[in-house]
Amino acid sequence: MMTLEDQTLNLYDRNAESYKTRTDHINLEDHYDRVIRFLGGRKGKVLDLGCGPGRDSKFFIDSGFSVTSVDGSRAMIDLVSKVNENSRLLKFENLDYCCEFDLVWSSASLLHIEKEKIRSVLELIRDSLSLGGVFYLSLKEGKKNFIDDQGRYFSTYEMDELEAILESVDGFKIAKIWRQESLVTHTEEQQVWLGAVVVRG
């Protein structure tokens, strides 16, 4: 039986080029700056988790970081491999890295994981970080999970819910958490997002 995650990945496989066209222009400079300052000047290893077609991977490569790009969609990996040869087809629940990365960057990707699976995925992310490593994630704010008009599954979170989940992961310490308006206002005028930076202790 196909899971909601598999259904979403299949949709990304079929629409990778159009997704790239819709999202490549989004300006995340403020987000990059906000997260990178927690690295204290280190130009280390970055895991771009749920990398999509490679917008963020390209930014980090151009900024002097060593980047590993991971996605569960074959079509997205085909696209990101044009900007980063170090790319890998892998579902989040199969992450197998240990103490390897200075930064795990997960922009608008963990929201496709069903809530009952999110804590185990967060533990795998923690394990992939070096001590003192930084984890960034962004998720949609909301009270109800939903399937959008394209057929993609989304888990949404309230601020206190997200804080509680992150704090429940042994070794995680929340450094910053915030709310922000969508950067894609022409399609998500009412959508508010949650962002968080977490440090592995």
TrEMBL record:
Recorded superkingdom: Bacteria
Coiled-coil intervals: none
Gene3D superfamilies: Vaccinia Virus protein VP39
Domain Methyltransferase: 46-133
Keywords assigned by UniProt, alphabetized: Methyltransferase, Transferase
UniProt GO BP: methylation
InterPro entries for this protein: Methyltransf_25 (IPR041698), SAM-dependent_MTases_sf (IPR029063)
GO MF annotation: an example: methyltransferase activity
Name of the molecule in the record: Methyltransferase domain-containing protein
